[in-house]
Amino acid sequence: MMSLKYLLVLLSLLLGMAVYHLEMPNLSDILQNKQAISVFIESHYAFSVVMFFLMCVVFINSPIPMAAVMKILSGYFFGFYTGAFYNILATLVACLVGFFLSRHVFKTQFERLFYARLERIEHEIERNGLYYFLSLRIVLVVPCFLINISAGLSRLSFRDYFLSTFLGVLPASLIYANGGQQLEHIRSTSELFEWGTIVSLTLMATISLLPIWIGPRNRFPS
Fold first, then answer.
1. CA 179/CA 189 separation, integer angstroms
2. Which parts of the chain register pLDDT below 70?
3. Is the dihedral of CA 189, 165, 112, 18 positive or negative?
4. If you ran DSSP here, which 8-state letter would residue 184 be given?
5. Could you tell me the residue ranges of all domains in the chain?
């Protein structure tokens, strides 16, 4: 386990150095090279899909703001339906990896950094973590890597984490895949989230919390 920790730390350092010295591509850079990228994907389809999954695992579990770009490109290069499927599956895999690393590999290190903030709400997360994490996944306010770490440090069951993650990433994955169809008409990922979309996501997140709010009222005294 220690060797795995050292390997992951080394990979993180190498990634950080690469990001520091190299400028991350934006959507306009991708569009300028879309023909070459499309040809490469067609010639190396399986390799391209594997690389997409690996990059999603890395970016979703790091503060590097490239996960959204990757998901938009999935819809652009693979098409809406296939891109949406890859987005959902890659995001789910990435979140499960982050959960595993937080709970089993870097638990001691992360507890020193974050557990003091979670300790006061530990019992509430254990009871209603499914709804809280589902809401956080939907609204896209808290970065995924922080959600993964928090869930891994809490006593949230794996079943509830899996269910909240699977259901929570569906809306954004579809939005990003659809954004891939509009890629040539947008300049940034923020343009995908119009007021109607933001209100819809907020409403969905609010509905996901209803079981917490109405639950105690439906409990009859023994």
1. 8
2. 1-29, 114-119, 184-197, 200, 210-222
3. negative
4. G
5. 36-215
pLDDT digits (tens, 9 = 90+) for 182-217: 776 666 666 666 666 677 677 777 777 766 666 554
Residues 95 and 151: their CA atoms lie apart, in Å, by: 10
pLDDT reported for residue 125 = 79
Scanning the chain, the segments in alpha helix (DSSP H) are: 2-21, 27-32, 34-43, 45-60, 67-78, 80-100, 107-110, 116-118, 122-139, 144-153, 158-181, 195-208, 210-214
Measured between alpha carbons, how far is 192 from 180 in angstroms, rounded to an integer? 10
For 38, 40, 104, 109, 177, the CA distances from 89, given in Å and listed in that order, are: 22, 22, 22, 28, 13
Mean pLDDT of the chain: 78
In the numeric block, which tokens belong to residue 189? 């990922």
Whose tokens are 């770490």? That residue is 149
Closest CA to 84 of 76, 93, 75, 92: 75
**Which of 99-111 are b and which e, b meaning 16 or more Cβ less than 10 Å from the residue's Cβ?**
bebbbebbeeebb
Q: Which amino acid is at 91?
A: T
